[in-house]
Amino acid sequence: MEIIAHRGVPRQEPENSLPGFELAVRQKVHGIELDVHATKDGVVVVHHDPNIRHGPLINTLTLTELHRYPLAPGVEIPTLAAVLDRMARATPPPTVYVEVKGRDIEEAVVAVLDYARVPTAVHAFDHRVAARVTSLSPSIPTGILLDSYLVDPAAALQAAGARDYWLQWAFIDRDLVRRIHDVGGRVIAWTVNDAGDIAALDSLGVDGVCSDIAGEFV
Hints:
There is one protein chain. 30% of the residues lie in helices and 21% in strands. The protein is of the alpha/beta class. The chain has a single domain, classed as TIM Barrel (Alpha-Beta Barrel).
């Protein structure tokens, strides 16, 4: 089962930061998960919310202006390109799972991922993102995010043309895993921070778990 670091190691370093991702790879996680938006000048940056905490929207700032709002002293909001470059130096490099948060930024995201030297994949709550990314770059695996149990999960995955079915972990059962596997998909559980829950998900055949404390489960 793949162990994926949720926004790095948010309990030890600022979430979605280079120090957090670097610590995660030192802990030998298999993948990292991050969120992206785009600046006013079209640079894809790694940040969860659309706005800076107590500040402006990211898409109203240039990259230079964004650097005025560090995550912590000396820790800038990183660009996606910088994270991918840093992860490429790891041995072995982790898979970088990119959750697209910003609207209409698929082209900008794909333009960065096409030059990545690490394995990558894209996912989003907006299931149209998967289809758009596939149309732009069919080699990039995609996924759909959910926080409820659908009547026909396999159909949703196939409708989006996606590979990965990201579901809030408490909704996952053996039947769902079987149905997703039957259509060639993978099930990734989020966000799991208990060893017992991870063991239970592993027994169901879940393909990956995303955790705030991923390093504890490798």
